[in-house]
Structure formats: structure tokens, C-alpha cells
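Late entry, written up from scratch paper. The run itself happened at the end of the previous shift, but nothing got recorded in the book at the time, so transcribing now.
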Amino acid sequence: MNILGSFFFAFLLVVRLTQMTQSGIDLIGILLVVQSGLAAFWLIFRRKSSAEVHGSTKLLAWLSAIVPLTMHSSENARLSWLSMPGLLIMLWALWSLGSSFAVAPAARKLIMSGPYRYLRHPMYAGEIFPL
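Output as recorded:
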């Protein structure tokens, strides 16, 4: 499933690069490209868990990973800058997770550095910020 997931995020990376070349390069677009690239990378080189979940929980987690496809840089510069803090929090969390990153929940090492020092789920916080 991780290879399939890394292909998904690599595909998302290509889609976001294509969007950027068509609409112009902007900081939000660059951050979205970095997010997709990091997710693809960490899914390939992630730390394996002995107690991963299976079935409907894993399917739900992977279906939820499709949500970033709806996010793209806005043509309205004022609206796109509202998403900047959330994207930065998500990237910081993704970087802090490193090889512990995965889409489906599993028993892995507890991360207590970076934004995980302050929040238990900073990637979720970044996704909903500034809603």
C-alpha cells in the first residue's frame, strides 16, 4: 500500500507542478509541491510498524488522503495567503515525522519534537487552519 501511496503523492506532485506552470509560480504552489514530494518520499522510506491497522480504518485513512487534491493555489492572492500558516504547520509536521510518516494509523515511535512538542496532531491543525 505504501508504494501505491507514494505513487499517489508523486502523481499529486506532477499535477501541482502542472498547475503551477499553467497559472504561474507562487509561494503557495511551491509549498504544495514540497508537501506532495515529502509525502511521497517518506512513504517510500518510512519506518515499518509491526501493528498496522487493516480493513476499513486503513481504507478510510487512504480515502482521506485524497482531500489535498482539492487544494490548489488560488488566483485571488489575498485568499491564497490565508492558507500559508496552515501549509507551513503541515510541512513542519511532515518534516518532523520523517520516516514515521504514514497515512494509515499504526503503532509507531511517539514524536515529541517540532510542532508535536505543542500539539498532538499538528498536520490536522494545519489542514483546518484558518477555518
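The mean pLDDT is 79.
(Scratch paper discarded after transcription.)
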